[in-house]
Design brief:
This protein has four helices and seven strands; from the N terminus they run E-H-H-E-E-E-E-E-E-H-H. With 154 residues, the chain is α+β, with helices and mostly antiparallel strands.
């Protein structure tokens, strides 16, 4: 039996190179990912991690790094107070389409808790990324609903 997967597709008015930079730059991710910074050298086999206020939330290994077309890494939630499940995988496919870029985010090999958390988290993160690249402004960290909390679990 295969593990569940989550797929999210959007179109961003940017270049593939700018989108790649936004996905792999600590300074960019901290802006649109509600304070979480990603850190890695982005070589296949290298470690990466997301951290906020000095605490790691997610870590893993770079599985694919083909700038500016494809990025994939393992996903292991290590945030304090969050129940751990098996390691899953996130893949970003970046396809230029004229003046826009098609971004497909696939998160697979999911356990039930991770699926629940990322199903609300990824849409918030990707919407904030899209807003940031298109307007220079990320979504606010404090939203009327519990969306920001859910995004922090992504």
């Amino acid at each position: 039996m295969s593990k569940p997967e989550f797929v999210y597709v959007t179109y961003v008015e940017t270049t593939a190179e700018q989108l790649w930079h936004a996905l792999t730059s600590s300074d960019f991710t901290e802006r649109y990912w509600f304070g979480y910074r990603i850190t890695s050298d982005w070589k296949v086999g290298s470690p990466y991690h997301f951290s906020k206020d000095g605490s790691r939330a997610v870590q893993g290994e770079v599985l694919v790094a083909d700038p500016p077309k494809k990025l994939a890494y393992s996903w292991d939630v290590v945030k304090e107070g969050v129940e751990r499940e098996q390691v899953s995988r996130v893949t970003f496919d970046i396809e230029p389409r004229g003046r826009v870029v098609k971004l497909t985010v696939t998160h697979d090999d999911l356990g039930p808790k991770t699926l629940r958390d990322i199903s609300s988290g990824w849409p918030m993160v990707i919407a904030s990324l899209k807003s940031f690249l298109e307007t220079g402004r990320e979504l606010p960290a404090e939203l009327p609903s519990s969306g920001a909390k859910e995004a922090s679990n992504a």
